[in-house]
Amino acid sequence: MVSETILRERSVAACAVPGSRVEHVHSLGPARIALPRLQTGASFFDHWPVREVPEQGLWAADHYDSFAPPTFVLHDVLVHSSAGIVAVGDTVIAETLAHTNGHDHAYRPLMRGIAISPEHVTKLPGAHISLLAAGEMEYRHAMLHGLARLISVPETYQVAAEGVLVPAGGPFQAETLRLLDLLPSLAVREVEQAETLHVETLIFPLSVCGEAAYHPCLLDFFRRLSANVAAVPGRPPRRIYIDHRASPIRPLHNESDVIAGLAPLGFCVVRPDEMNVAEQIRLFRQAEAVVSPNGAWLANLGFCRPGCVVVELQMDAFVDWGFRHLAALAQLRYDCVLGRAPKPWGDLDAYFHGTPWEISVQHVVAAVAHALRGSEVGGALAA
Questions:
Q1: Which long-range contacts (CB under 8 A, 24 or more apart) does 251-254 make?
Q2: Up-side HSE of residue 363: CA atoms within 13 Å toward CB?
Q3: Is the separation of the CB atoms in 250 and 339 below 8 Å?
Q4: Contact call for residues 320 and 314 (beta carbons, < 8 A)
Q5: Which fold has domain 33-65+233-382?
Q6: Under DSSP, is residue 144 helix (H, G, I), strand (E, B) or coil?
Q7: 3-state secondary structure of 124
């Protein structure tokens, strides 16, 4: 019978005390990022009840304060699962449990910690950089919360490391790592979903995103990827609509009507899920306007050129400002349009995140046309 290991939960900062196996070795300074006023979008919030995540009233904010990403070095630790759950002695690092669940990542949740029962522990000598994160099969999490963390690791630690740890089986990791042009000395070690490693030295950068509080270093991640993608003959569409009709997450019931309404404005329908990373980079780098329901593929906004128009379609019961913040960081011209989810609104659980909703095609077309021409419209739009 495999023995069970009980791990209490503590933050990594609480574990980084003198003489411990956790050292805080570097931090990037925070930054204040300006948020331009929502042009059309503001009129919705003046008239409609909404539920913003993580807190109410953010629609009117004129800035956000970025996360200040720290890097830690941990010695003699367990790294559990493709999510990169880290255990130091009898403690699990709280930050590494984000977006995980016991079923997918092979642990038993406790009130203030977890229990793991690894059948085998593989020893990994030397120093390795952890780019592991939960949600590795989803583009936004894989790119922004996982691979992008490499950018915040000081070069001296990258040189000292023998390899990087990445989730196994992720559809984006291999190509993205190739485009990042890693040091030749860095070996890529893929970690399986239920695998457990005993790592001699773990270089552990926290997310460069925080809770949608993107640090400016994230732009270096996008620039580095873009620099290694060559242009191809032909002219990609300049005005793009990201098609979500095949997605089970928050299906927009009248999305086909939205697409038809935008066609006279020159918008072409695109499916990033059918493209490799280089093709997505080329597409967004050449875009002059992007319209899309809230969804993972908007992580590609970091590849857009400053001044690109972005109109995000949001559901009133789950307004997520992550991509507004990313657009502000990349100096894009962001606006939004709200649609409606059926009431009563459910809890913010995985099921409700997938609830169907609808949006006014008239409102979408008017907001996009306004954004493209840069003129003012009255506040009656959302009445």
A1: 251/354, 251/356, 251/357, 252/293, 252/313, 252/339, 252/356, 252/357, 252/358, 252/359, 253/356, 253/357, 253/358, 254/358, 254/359, 254/361
A2: 23
A3: no
A4: yes
A5: Rossmann fold (3.40.50)
A6: helix
A7: strand
The predicted model scores a pTM of: 0.94
Find, among 124, 45, 110, the residue nearest to 78 by Cα: 124
Bigger pLDDT: 137 vs 196: 196
pLDDT tens across 181-223, in order? 898 989 999 999 999 999 999 999 999 998 889 999 999 999 9
Domain ranges of the chain: 5-27+68-210, 33-65+233-382
In degrees and rounded to multiples of 5, residue 138 shows phi and psi of: -110, 135
Q: Given phi > 0 = left and psi -120 to 50 = alpha, else beta, which region is 234?
A: left
DSSP designation for 7: E
The four Cα atoms 316, 372, 264, 254 give a dihedral, to 10 degrees, of: -10
Q: Are 196 and 120 in contact (CB under 8 A)?
A: yes
| Token output for 273 | 């899920």
Question: What does the alpha-carbon distance between residue 61 and residue 212 come to, in Å, rounded to a whole number?
Answer: 14
- Residue indicated by tokens 């640090």: 215
Where does residue 298 rank: exposed (0-12), middle (13-18), buried (19+ CB within 10 A)? Answer: buried
Which amino acid, residue 315? M
| 316-370 per-position pLDDT tens digit | 999 999 999 999 999 999 999 999 999 999 887 767 778 899 999 999 999 999 9
